[in-house]
Specification:
The protein is α+β, with helices and mostly antiparallel strands. Helix content is 28%, strand content 45%.
């Protein structure tokens, strides 16, 4: 899968390298929120995708997505889902 990232304001959808595992499974992509503290930028995960036999499922981290800009979050979720689905079709 080609790497991708797409940022709108303080939200970003990005692919993840094989090094990022969740419970032993590779997390192919995530939506993150950028923030700043003491002049240093950092990010945290709002949601991430897991590969299943039927495709990709978007999983929320607690209630974090509900605290983000919903319109931007949804645009990024749609874009990430589209890119992952296309990458999965290319592998077949």
């Amino acid at each position: 899968m080609n790497k991708f990232n797409f940022r709108i304001g303080d939200l970003e959808v990005r692919s993840c390298g094989d090094f990022l595992l969740s419970g032993g499974e590779h997390v192919p992509a995530q939506i993150i929120k950028w923030d700043e503290s003491d002049g240093k930028e950092f990010c945290y995960v709002l949601a991430y995708w897991n590969k299943t036999k039927e495709g990709y499922d978007l999983l929320f981290v607690g209630d974090r997505p509900f605290k983000a800009d919903k319109d931007i979050f949804w645009k990024l979720a749609e874009q990430g889902q589209k890119l992952l689905t296309e990458a999965n079709k290319e592998r077949r």
